[in-house]
Amino acid sequence: MDQGWTEGDTVGKCMVTYNRNRIKEAAAVLFHHTALDDETMPWKHYRDEDQLFTFMTMESPSNIIHGESRNLRKFDDSFINITMTHRRDSDVFTPYVTPDDVTSMYSRGKDYVDDLISKKKKVALWVVSNCKKIRGSRLRMDYVTKMVEAGLPVDRFGHCFKNKKEFSRFSEKQLQSYKFYMSF
Fold first, then answer.
1. What are phi and psi for residue 130, nearest 5 degrees?
2. Are 84 and 90 in contact (CB under 8 A)?
3. Residue 158 and residue 66: Cα distance in Å, rounded?
4. CA nearest to 160, candidates 179, 181, 137, 139
5. Per-residue pLDDT tens digits of the chain, which is 184 residues long
6. For residues 166 and 157, is the Cβ–Cβ distance under 8 A?
7. How are the residues of the chain apportioned to helix, strand and coil, as percentages rounded to the nearest 5?
8. Alpha carbon distance 168, 174 (integer Å)
9. Which of 52, 53, 51, 58 is nearest to 4 (CA)?
């Protein structure tokens, strides 16, 4: 994974491992939605009837089904027991930020915020690589284009703008120079 937990991290009372040889010890097995492409039904690997098989993603349902052309219907109704996503109606709610992150951000005070904003010289950044696959991606592209045409300075990067490599070389200081990040 390029983000998320590392081997041996603890989350609550759980320890994270990517070692598939330890599946018999697991109370829960997380399947990132992309990992399900490699699996077939019926499931040919070990599974204890008390284990929770968990569907995990931070992507929108529309992008998974339409944009990435995932066929999750090959799994029967009892393969996945619970969901773990950014949606509040998931069995396991996994927000993009933790309560501790929010507390530390807001406890710094007005002086910290004023200092932070004084260093931001650029207005908005948008990084996108899903341009025209689904209706939502086309709508957000049109929306940002109209904002730019109206005069809002938005620096746009990613596959859609053929400058993904240029963005990958951005330093932390460059990223922090933006007041806003466009997210849809």
1. -110, 95
2. yes
3. 20
4. 137
5. 345 678 888 878 889 898 989 999 999 998 888 877 777 777 788 889 899 999 888 887 766 666 555 666 777 777 889 999 988 899 998 887 777 777 887 788 889 888 888 989 999 999 998 887 788 888 999 999 999 999 999 999 998 899 999 998 999 999 999 999 998 7
6. yes
7. 35, 20, 45
8. 11
9. 58
Indicate the pTM of the whole model.
0.57
Distances (CA, A) of 150 to 51, 68, 126, 143, 175: 54, 32, 16, 11, 24
Residues 144, 154: contact at Cβ < 8 Å?
A: yes
- CA 86/CA 92 separation, integer angstroms: 9
For tokens 């759980």, name the residue: 14
Burial of 55 (C-beta count, 10 Å sphere; 0-12/13-18/19+): buried
